[in-house]
Specification:
Blueprint lengths: L1 E6 L4 E9 L11 E8 L7 E4 L1 E2 L5 E8 L3 E11 L2 E11 L7
Antiparallel strand pairs: 1-2, 2-6, 3-4, 3-7, 5-6, 7-8
Length: 100
């Protein structure tokens, strides 16, 4: 399983935090993690970035520039022992306010 948090939960400059878990909620060790976001709105470019593991085991993508709010598909690409696992789910982000 993957727990993906986008902070703040809106378009603009954000940070993504990814926690990986086994089915029994024990931590899942990975060698490499990437986050891909694909917009549901035609013409909005998707993005894919490598995550960096923090000291607490959370994988982090800093300075993630998300073009617009709405429904996106988040894909977490996990590499471990020569295998690749892809986890995906929809994620909803708010529009950016005027302060962005």
């Amino acid at each position: 399983m993957a727990d993906v948090t986008i902070d703040p939960g809106r378009a603009g400059i954000t940070t993504a935090m990814i926690r990986l878990w086994h089915e029994d909620f024990s931590p899942y060790d990975a060698e490499r993690v990437r986050l891909a976001l694909d917009a549901k709105v035609p013409g909005t470019p998707g993005l894919e970035r490598d995550a960096v593991m923090a000291a607490d085991g959370t994988w982090v993508v800093d300075n993630l520039r998300i073009q617009s709010g709405g429904v996106w598909t988040a894909r977490v690409i996990v590499e471990r022992n020569g295998s690749t696992l892809v986890l995906d789910a929809p994620i909803v982000l708010a529009q950016c306010s005027n302060e962005c």
